[in-house]
Amino acid sequence: MQTTSDEVLIGRIANGDRLAMQVLFARHHVRVYRFVLRLLRNEATAEDVTSETFLDVWRQAGKFEGRSAVSTWMLSMARFKALSMLRRRPVEELDEEAAGAVEDDADTPETALAKKDKGAILRQCLTKLSAEHREIVDLVYYHEKSVEEVAVIVGIPEATVKTRMFYARKKLSALLREQGIDRGWP
Amino acid sequence: MNAADEREPNDIELLLPWHAAGTLSVREAQRVEAALAHDPELARRYEVVREELGQTIHLNETLGAPSPRTMQALFAKIDAEPPRRPTLSAASLGMRIGTFFSGLSPRALAWSASAAMLAILLQAGLIAGIVLKEKNATGYETASAPAAIGDEGSFALIRFQPLATAIDITKFLETNNLSIASGPSAGGLFRVRIGEAKLAKADRDRIVKALQEDKVVGFIAITE
After folding, report:
1. CB contact under 8 A, A122 and B87
2. Domain limits at A145?
3. Is the per-residue pLDDT at A99 higher than 60?
4. Which end of chain A is less congested by CB atoms within 10 angstroms, N or C?
5. B23 with A171: CB under 8 angstroms?
């Protein structure tokens, strides 16, 4: 079965096709939401940013030039909105949410270590990375973005994308070591 | 941590996360594969990367999905937007062209290519004709194009075979002393002059029957 490409949907949305908008939303809203949720650490705010991102898709579809994949374009817009939202929010609020971290089914590090569940500890450490490191890890591993696409979304040179990912992984190793897990790298 | 661990990572090591995610180009992926095959330490580090990949996916998949409120809020805002007039951006034009060609069958696409090539050749011939005419002119001439083929003569409608090449079609026209009067019209039909004079029906039938035998002709019929 051949599905309508995202690019064709954008062309239809540019002409006011509401159904095409529904299809695009159904196809991408969960990933966009998860991407901003990992940055914002607040479900209600992440939902607002997701909704606003797709509203921008509706408004700007006519300007989409096809230089990148539609998903890359949308993640760029979502990221911009999420960062704008972060800048507007008071520091105390961010600290409280950071302390709460993102919902995860992982155990606390102590419990997980007791269970020798290395995977759960690794997931817990992934939530403790800085926003800059979280986003690059998610874009590469979960959103399956190439070096070039990450560079477009984050707005940095490709060489910086590679080194930032390297240092994000290095930080992850340091966090794991604090939890008593030595991966033998770096 | 020893001194070796402090060294700057090489390019291959930097690419390991993308190799694990399967987002490298074929050439880069082959470079990484070759390095992994010959470097046990790199291969061990690659396993660390693969573990991160799996747990990052696991973590994201447990984040849930937005509530229906997200979609409701979006479409409420979209409904409140002013109605828009159809636009034709550069991207959407490209997409439309792409969609149009992707919708054509290979036969139709081949025919369209032949027709387009024929049109180019006819234009080139026309220009060459003008140039040669000017070059050979001995006296004063007005700079006008050769007269178009009028309604005088006998005509047939021709549709060429989809896989006929422009060279085949040109040769066919020359060999049979045919001139394209107009076209292509809907359905890819060309109006071709088969005789400069008004021929009797029997003569036109004979010519059309003979032309029908040519491999480049898909359809041919007498027309006024």
Report:
1. no
2. 106-186
3. no
4. N
5. no
